[in-house]
Amino acid sequence: MSNIILETEDLTKVYKVGKVETHALRGVSLSIEKGEFVAIMGQSGCGKSTLLHLLGGLLSPTSGKILIDGEDVSKVSDAKRTDIRRRKIGFVFQRFNLFPTLTADGNLRLAERIHLGNGNGNPEKRREILSLLKLENKMNNKPIELSGGEQQRVALARAVINSPAIILADEPTGNLDTENSEIVLNMFNKLNKRFGQTILMITHNPEAAEHCGRIIQMRDGLIVDD
Ligand SMILES: Nc1ncnc2c1ncn2[C@@H]1O[C@H](COP(=O)(O)OP(=O)(O)OP(=O)(O)O)[C@@H](O)[C@H]1O
Ligand SMILES: [Mg+2]
Q: 13 lies in which domain range?
């Protein structure tokens, strides 16, 4: 059994808007082992979010391969890819993408439904995760009734509620002050150390990256340091 959970081979992504092409990724090859906690850094526009969205199956590559647990997800059907994503991956988006009409708890319940089906899910677990993120008093608030940092933490809770093997987080501390960044990073550390979850986190913050065992540096669509 290989210990590699996530692998890419010569991944490229070209966006086309009208006649303008943007080469967001120019050939990225990397492999991530189970249980790694990896930071992805690099200046704005260098392709970090694009890479994460490809890894999470939210976008299709222009060329190249993505393997999750040894399975080539570039070759499977859209339905299969969605299934793999739902079972194995938790995603924290750069924009929160919370469901506006649902409360914090309701947003977690929506994510649980994929794994646990209809019913009430696991209310205790939802409460525990929200408390860990200092949101125990905000369970019944809708996104519009939460601050930006609180919304970010609800989005994080949603990504981890189903204990995915892989957590992909796009600037999870981007909206947070020092204290709340620490709360989030400590939670990642705990998930990583205690449960062996694999985490890839995009960050602009060198202090956040210090929590990670590995730092991947990108520039202009390529990995320039690892
Ligand atoms: N949907 C899209 N259509 C067209 N161009 C896009 C699209 N998404 C991203 N791009 C372009 O691709 C390049 C890489 O974008 P990406 O979002 O991956 O950067 P990033 O490293 O995440 O930057 P940031 O740190 O600002 O979030 C940029 O030049 C961006 O303008
Ligand atoms: Mg980005």
A: 4-102+164-225
Cα gap 97→90, rounded to integer Å = 13
The C-alpha atoms of residue 89 and residue 11 are separated, in whole angstroms, by 19
Distance in Å, CA 200 to ligand 2 centroid: 13
Q: Look at residues 25, 34, 62 and name the one whose alpha carbon lies nearest to residue 224.
A: 25
Residue 170 domain-assigned (yes or no): yes
Query: Is residue 108 domain-resident?
Result: no
Is the pLDDT at 197 greater than 60? The verdict is yes
Contact 166, 88 (CB under 8 A): yes
Q: Is residue 133 part of a domain?
A: no
Q: Hey, which residues does 32 pair with through a beta bridge?
A: 6
How many structural domains comprise the chain? 1
Q: Which residues of 130-151 are buried (b: 16+ CB within 10 A; e: fewer)?
A: bebbebeebbebbbeebeebbb
Digit-coded pLDDT (tens) for 73-112: 878 888 888 888 888 999 888 777 899 999 999 999 999 9
Ligand nearest to C-alpha 58: 1
Confidence of residue 154 (pLDDT cuts 50, 70, 90): very high
| Ligand at shortest distance from the CA of 47 | 1
Structure tokens at 145: 């009734």
- For position 43, which CATH number holds? 3.40.50.300
Could you report the per-residue pLDDT of 34-48, keeping only the tens digit for each? Answer: 999 999 999 999 999
Residue 59 included in any domain: yes
The residue to mutate among 49, 93, 222, 223, having the most atoms of ligand 1 within 8 angstroms of its beta carbon, is 49
